[in-house]
């Protein structure tokens, strides 16, 4: 009897235990291992001994790290902002339509998110290539001079923002559209009966009711873009010079090109803290408790 009661009380825990152990092994253990390694000199995996906060001090005194953080935040905020604004506009537009046209628009908008990130970026790299790219092919056909985008620092940053936004517009659109479909039509009809116009219905009813999917989409896209390594690596390679050397590329090169694993671990901890700051800021800004 006691065994059956004990099994009944702890059955849920026993069923979730394998998943919890897997999460601990994949997420928690590497996190604490990285934190531990950040206090040691581990060049080329050779333990040079405990150095305390020297790795962090070295990062804070390096202008390249500060620049990488700055350009990463700029690209992240700009691309996520474009994705959310256009996603909201497309979602509001599709919400007023039904039938095959609405499904096709959703399908086309979601394709950049579901296709391989590498494939999509390679296609953009080919289209914008200065010598053999599709864009310059059409420009030459029309009698214009070719545009060498990846030799300009400003153009490279803008292009990276556009490509990262293009990849995520469909995700924000679908998430916001799902929230709009859950809005009670009775509230909208009552507002219109009371004389509310389209803008008032949007700002006072629809947007407050869909703030949860907006918040979640913003957090997901911000984290995705901030930690994105594939798109910058394939599209610009961090160039020209260090113009698009985002923090994920700096972290990758520090660990797997220069083999400075102690400093790379310290930088990983800083990147993790910045991710947490982003989440807290968004939750505070929207004044909503998850």
Structure commentary:
- The two termini are 40 Å apart.
- It contains 13 helices and two strands.
- The chain has a two-stranded antiparallel ribbon.
- The protein has a domain at 70-244: MetI-like fold, CATH 1.10.3720.10.
- The protein is mainly alpha-helical and 290 residues long.
- The chain has helices spanning 2-37, 54-60, 63-95, 100-114, 117-127, 134-141, 153-181, 185-193, 198-209, 211-226, 230-235, 247-256, 261-286; strands at 40-43, 46-50.
- A hairpin with a 2-residue loop joins strand 1 (40-43) and strand 2.
- Belongs to the binding-protein-dependent transport system permease family.
- It is a multi-pass membrane protein.
Topology of this protein?
Layout: H1 2-37, E1 40-43, E2 46-50, H2 54-60, H3 63-95, H4 100-114, H5 117-127, H6 134-141, H7 153-181, H8 185-193, H9 198-209, H10 211-226, H11 230-235, H12 247-256, H13 261-286
Antiparallel strand pairs: 1-2
Strand content: under 5%
Major sheet attributes = 2 strands, antiparallel
Order of strands across the main sheet: 1-2
CATH class call of the domain at 70-244: Mainly Alpha
Would you identify the CATH architecture of the domain at 70-244? Orthogonal Bundle
Count of DSSP strands: 2
Q: Mean pLDDT, nearest integer? A: 88
| Helix content estimate | over 70%
Cα gyration radius (Å): 24 Å
Distance between the termini: 40 Å
Q: What are the low-pLDDT stretches, counting only 5+ consecutive residues below 50?
A: none
- State the CATH superfamily name of the domain at 70-244: MetI-like
In DSSP terms, counting alpha (H) and pi (I) runs of 4 or more, how many helices?
13
* CATH-defined topology of the domain at 70-244: MetI-like fold
Class by SSE composition: mainly alpha
Shape: globular
Order of helices and strands: HEEHHHHHHHHHHHH
């Amino acid at each position: 009897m006691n065994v059956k009661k004990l099994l009944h009380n702890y059955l849920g825990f026993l069923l979730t235990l394998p998943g919890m152990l897997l999460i601990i092994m994949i997420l928690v253990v590497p996190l604490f291992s990285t934190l531990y390694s950040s206090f040691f000199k581990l060049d080329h995996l050779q333990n040079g001994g405990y150095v305390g906060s020297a790795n962090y001090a070295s990062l804070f005194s390096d202008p390249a790290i500060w620049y990488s953080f700055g350009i990463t935040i700029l690209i992240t905020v700009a691309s996520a902002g474009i994705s959310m604004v256009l996603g909201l506009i497309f979602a509001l537009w599709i919400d007023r339509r039904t039938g095959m046209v609405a499904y096709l628009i959703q399908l086309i908008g979601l394709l950049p998110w579901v296709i391989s990130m590498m494939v999509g970026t390679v296609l953009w790299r080919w289209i914008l290539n200065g010598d053999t790219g599709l864009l310059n092919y059409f420009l030459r056909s029309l009698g214009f001079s070719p545009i060498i985008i990846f030799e300009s620092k400003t153009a490279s940053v803008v292009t990276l923002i556009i490509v990262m936004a293009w990849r995520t517009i469909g995700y924000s659109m679908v998430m916001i559209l799902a929230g709009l479909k859950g809005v009670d039509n009775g509230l909208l009809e009552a507002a219109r009966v009371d004389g509310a116009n389209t803008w008032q219905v949007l700002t006072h009813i629809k947007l407050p009711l869909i703030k949860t999917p907006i918040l979640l989409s913003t957090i997901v896209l911000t984290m995705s873009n901030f930690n994105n390594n594939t798109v910058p690596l394939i599209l610009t390679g961090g160039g020209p010079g260090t113009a698009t050397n985002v923090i994920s590329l700096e972290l990758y090169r520090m660990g797997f090109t220069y083999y400075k694993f102690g400093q790379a671990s310290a930088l990983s901890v800083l990147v993790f803290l910045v991710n947490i700051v982003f989440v807290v800021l968004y939750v505070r800004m929207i004044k909503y408790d998850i």
